[in-house]
Amino acid sequence: MSEVPIKPSVTVKYTQLFIDGKFVDAASGKTFQTLDPRTGEVIANVAEGDAEDINRAVAAARKAFDEGPWPKMTAYERQKIVLRYADLLEQHNDELAALETWDNGKPYQQAVTEVQIYIRLMRYYAGWADKIHGLTVPADGPYHMQTLHEPIGVAGGIIPWNFPLPMFAWKVGPALACGNTLVMKPAEQTPLTALFAAKLFHEAGLPPGVLNVIPGYGPTAGAALASHMDVDKLAFTGSTETGKIVHELANKSNLKSVSLELGGKSAFIVCEDADIDKAVELAHFALFFNQGQCCCAGSRTFVHESIYDEFVEKAKQRALKRSIGDPFKEGIEQGPQIDTEQFNKILKYIKSGVECGATLESGGERYGDKGYYIKPTVFSNVKDDMLIAKDEIFGPVQTILKFKDLDEVIRRANDSQYGLAAGIFSQNVDTINTLTRALRVGTVWVNCYNVYDAALPFGGYKMSGHGREKGMNSLEHYLQVKSVCIPLVNPAWL
User: Fold this and answer.
1) pLDDT tens digit sequence for 10-69
2) Which end of the chain, N or C, is less packed with Cβ atoms under 10 Å?
3) Which residues act catalytically here (predicted)?
4) Which helix (H) or strand (E) holds 206?
5) E-strand spans in 305-375?
């Protein structure tokens, strides 16, 4: 692209580690570069945390949990702090969104929406703080029996680069609502908004040490957090491959509780009764949203044979019309991929699809001559055994497969190591009911896609992970359940 990138209306304020309520340099003094994916140029140099810094952050979190006021506060007081934080976030909405677009490459209006999602999540979890309670259990004898739900202690969170702020909220929200303290490691590609968010939390009154943020790399900072003996719970969102490593490190250390939200290769099933124009648009959104960098992207588009050819042609035309360019420019639907590694990986998969005999309908190459832009790509005549139909590409590559009947598409959709999400496009209630129950995935969207709600749990079957983010189910990961039994003398009732 020959046009000059738009200058962001934001400055980078925070680039150090955030430990015990203060910004500090890494113990090693090292920094790393965070890059503008529009150009590959340096935005800022960020402190590079490693094992020593994780130790410092965990020590601060442990002290804040064992000695500090946070878990000893009334739930109502904790709730008020989180609500004040949400108000502060609203005041900085545009600044956070601009920082996110600059560091990540997603369209600015999408980033604005994601900041609002972040705020909504924080208010949702603030509402849970004073509603976490146990039970009084009827006993078979003269005993008072009850359960207590207690905070688990020090939680660790490792989050990805594709949705930095929402992923931050998915970990921080339930952990704080339950009275825990945290150490968070944002992705090295997108550390800037997490540091900003942590600073705002302390402006809202969060005590020092309750939330610590350590930018750094997976093999150093991430591995140190996963294997730390004084971390009681770990939440990870990222690739299945890295999830396996994180889980192994956790098991080999102190058997800390682990929740994993991992990769996917989600099926989007278009039935024969579909309104083709609407189905094409929804399938397009299901795949190309966020530059295709979405764990639950509808990356296997199954289309009934009776409408396949028409669907493919219209999907091609829609991809050709997709606006791609500087994400700060109004009307842009697709920005750059996150970095050169992801950029090259996607192009490698596209080449594989061509070599394996799939039909390249559109795209398939770089867009422009600067930054990490890839043209929206559509493949037809895709077979189940092709890499583009099996592997998580994590990019703007739509693969369209043909099917004959429900039994066939159920079998093929479920024939995957993943089980994160699926989409169904049909007007037949019997078809919808059959598919929603037969698909072995954690989320099924019917005649919609990528609809998220703070109260709706999200997570996967099979190698898409275990545990759930969001909703009341996520609170379970940050609580211990204690049973208490006390003898009763001359009780009036049992």
Assistant:
1) 999 999 999 999 999 999 999 999 999 999 999 999 999 999 999 999 999 999 999 989
2) C
3) 261
4) none
5) 359-362
Q: What is the pLDDT of residue 22?
A: 98
Residue keyed to tokens 């909703």 = 471
148, part of any domain: yes
In a domain, 1, yes or no: no
What's the domain range around 326? 267-446
| Residue 267 CB burial class (10 angstroms; 0-12, 13-18, ≥19) | buried
Active-site residue, selected from the candidate residues 100, 188, 261, 469: 261
Q: What are the residues whose beta carbons fall under 8 Å from the beta carbon of 388, sequence distance 6 or more?
A: 349, 350, 352, 353, 356, 358, 379, 382, 397, 399
- Residue 3 pLDDT greater than 80, yes or no: no
Let me know whether 112 and 241 are in one domain.
yes
Cβ contacts of residue 45 below 8 Å, gap of 6+?
15, 31, 32, 33, 34
Structural domain count of the chain:
2
Binned at pLDDT 50, 70 and 90, residue 494 comes out as confident
185 C-beta neighbours (distance < 10 Å), count = 30
Q: What is the mean pLDDT of the chain?
A: 97
What b/e sequence results for 54-85 when a residue is b if at least 16 CB atoms lie within 10 Å of its CB, and e otherwise? bbbbbbbbbebbeebebbebebeebbbbbbbb
Does 295 share its domain with 203?
no
> CB–CB of 436/267 below 8 Å?
no
CB 215 within 8 A of CB 188: yes
What burial class does residue 138 get, using C-beta atoms within 10 Å of its C-beta: 0-12 exposed, 13-18 middle, 19+ buried? exposed
Is residue 67 annotated as part of the catalytic site, yes or no? no
Please count the other Cβ atoms lying within 10 Å of the Cβ belonging to residue 434: 16
Residues 236 and 319 both lie in one domain:
no
Non-local CB neighbours of 383 within 8 Å, separated by 6+ positions: 356, 357, 358, 389, 401
